[in-house]
Amino acid sequence: MAAQQQMVKEERSLGDLFSELANETTVLVRQEVALAQVELTTKATRVGKNVGFLAVGGAVAYAAVLSILAGVIMLLGLAIPVWLSAIIVGLVVGGIAYFLVSSALAELRATDPVPRETVETIKEDAQWLKNQVS
Length: 134
Hints:
The chain is mainly α.
């Protein structure tokens, strides 16, 4: 009789352990999802900012082309042929636009979209869970 009671205690204890493990696993998964959301939001904000810089750089380049072409070409047209002044102004404005766009693209390429921290903690959690079940 005592052995039977001892077995019932062990079975209940094992059930309690599995229940606790299931609860902890649920909490852990929720925390990992929250971490992934924070990490992805941070990276998306950085990417969005750089895309905004790309758009602003393009708009600035366009505005520069319009104003410089109108003013400088006419001014240079007094000293040199108008077609040559248009080429010179176009090259200068194009160089500025190239610098703005290439800077923003370099920043975008340097941004890692993978939530590395979350991936690493999920691996650690999987190992912990494996150790708990073993």
